[in-house]
Amino acid sequence: MQRTAIPVLDMHGISMVYRTGLVETHALRDVDLRIDEGEFVAVLGPSGAGKSSLLGIAGLLEAPAKGGYRFCGEDALGLDDGAASALRCRSIGFVFQGFHLIPDLDIHNNVDLPLRLRGIGAGERRRRVREALARVGLEARARHFPAQLSGGQQQRAAIARAIVGRPRLVLADEPTGNLDSRMGQGVMDLLAGLNAAGSTIVVVTHDVAVAARAHRLLHMIDGTLIEFPGTAGALPAGRGR
Ligand code: ADP
Ligand code: MG
Predict the structure, then answer these.
(1) CA 56 – CA 129 distance, rounded (Å)
(2) Which of 2, 89, 125, 184 is the most exposed place for a label (fewest CB within 10 A)?
(3) Is the CB of 23 within 6 Å of ligand 1?
(4) 162-197, pLDDT tens digit by residue?
(5) DSSP state at residue 186
(6) In what order do the strands lie in the sheet with 9-20?
């Protein structure tokens, strides 16, 4: 895959505040984050640290209270809802703790859904869905329904759905959180393999063993993001912080 000088994700001074009645929660405090093409990044932090809020902004699902965000060089916060969802659909793949497969659709049709939403033709879709299912080792399960698969297999199907559109960025929110440790390892092996093949991946997790699989590690605590010393070598030269 070709490396570009433009970062996939470039956030500056991002803050996020939730207001519930009289209570203000500062979910993110002045977060700076740059992620280049081909990186495999983990954000480690306890429950409530702000990890999902960070992915919500990164994935163009939510707008911050303050700050700037460029996605692949484009001002992601200046887009209207339609443009943001088109960019999200084309460029970002999501993996969730709870898989979020549609129970009434078989695995093939679950993985096909993002391509349908983009209006891609049937032949091309069929080819891409088969390829994505092969990459996650589920070719033989295409006509199974989610409830007929193990948790690990369901998460592999969800990963196939995340990558079928060849996104610029894959965002995974506690992807092993509902899996036993063996299945969780399998899912992380798969994400590591996708990264080795060129995908840019961000995993957020509270699990140290999961985070340790990434090449670059950041810690999130109380809405503040801290780069782990020793993994900053994963950054291009001249980018000290
Ligand atoms: P994490 O994913 O690390 O567990 P979150 O980003 O979900 O953390 O939450 C960060 C903080 O923001 C927490 O204190 C949480 O309670 C609060 N929060 C998250 N979502 C909402 C919401 N919709 N309304 C109010 N507070 C929220
Ligand atoms: Mg969360």
Answers:
(1) 26
(2) 2
(3) no
(4) 999 999 999 999 999 999 999 999 999 999 999 999
(5) H
(6) 23-35, 9-20, 66-71, 74-75
Q: Which residues of 105-117 are buried (b: 16+ CB within 10 A; e: fewer)?
A: ebbbbbbbbbbee
C-beta of residue 40 within 8 angstroms of C-beta of residue 192:
yes
pTM (predicted TM-score): 0.93
Residues shown for the chain: 241
Atom of ligand 1 nearest to the CA of 45: 3
Give the type of residue at 136.
Answer: V
DSSP letters spanning 123-185: HHHHHHHHHHHHHTT-GGGTTS-GGGS-HHHHHHHHHHHHHTT--SEEEEESTTTTS-HHHHH
Token pair of 62, please? Answer: 């939510």
Task: Give residues whose Cβ lies within 5 Å of ion ligand 2.
Answer: 51-52
- Report, as an integer, the average pLDDT of 58-80: 96
